[in-house]
Amino acid sequence: MLPLFPPFPLGPTTPRSPYETSHTATQRSALTLWEFELLHHWILDVADSFDVSPGFHRAWRDQAIRAALQHEYLLHVILVLSALHLALTDSPSFTDRHRGLIVRGCSDAMATFRKEAEHVTEVNCHALMAFAFLVSVYAFALAQFDRADHHDHHCSHQPPPPPHRVDQDQEHKQQEQNILDETIGTLVLIKGTVVVGDSTKPLAEASGRPWVANADILAPPLGESASPSEDQDLHRALEDLQAWIDHAARGRGSGKHQGEEGGGPPTPTPRPITTTTSHQALRLLRETLAANLRSNLRPFAWPCTLDENYLDLLRARDPTALLILAHYAVILVQCRAQWWCAGWGARVIAGVAELLPEGLAGPLAYPLHVIGRG
Prior knowledge:
It is a single chain. The protein contains 15 helices and no strands. By secondary structure, it is mainly alpha-helical. Residues 1-22, 151-175, 251-273 are annotated as: Disordered.
């Protein structure tokens, strides 16, 4: 697994006078020709590839570049994302030098960012917000870098063919564990950016110079993500999952396991603390889906709401937590045309299917259907 960043979350941040400048800000006086080429690629190709709205694109083409030239940490993550875009879109321009930039990671940039985030000002608030968003994109993209089959998943969300030999099967199961661990790491990273948003958003709004307006990030009333029918199907699937969790909890209270009445294998029933945490995570997933964000921003919404209890359940491979994650992954599948997302949603769903105990085909039916395994 390639290097990400030092751990989030950040400590409390302290807004400073708008007339002060950050003592940690670093300004680039010149770019190398190679860096300029990557920045040019960002402006022409990467910014528009987010496919959100014209105002959103302008922000990343214009304001982000101006801020990046004033803040080295933001410039670095933009250059790395440009290199990742070349890699994941199979560009013939991708070279070993780009690979080296990606492999070196963003630890130095994150260290500088953390220092600057301790003192938020009107001068640095936009750059801090931009960096927080871009590292979330980076986390999804990096997880797919150098995977042997990313070419297939870029155009298709079908899962890879099952291995046949025993050693291949063991390797496959370990890969599914790794995918889940990388997904948890991405969720943790996105969750950590909330701290930055809470401290920077008031100053950004007070500055009177917001990069994007609400209309740039909110979808029209009927949504433009997935089709409305796909949204309706996902809403129904979440309702069904809620009913399954409730039924499983009642079965636990009566001492009867789900599956016993129909003669099938007994399925695990959530413990009380698990049920409470799962209820909250599922409720928040439904609420973020109802927030009507533009489709390619949806993957970043739910992780911002998660608490450590749910993440601990995922780390423990709790079946209910895994089922909720699989339904979240449907949102990733809806974004599969995005280079930074591509086949990751299908991988997560297939991984959950491998890791779940027997008897849970019912509540996993919709995610499996979405990736063509239903």
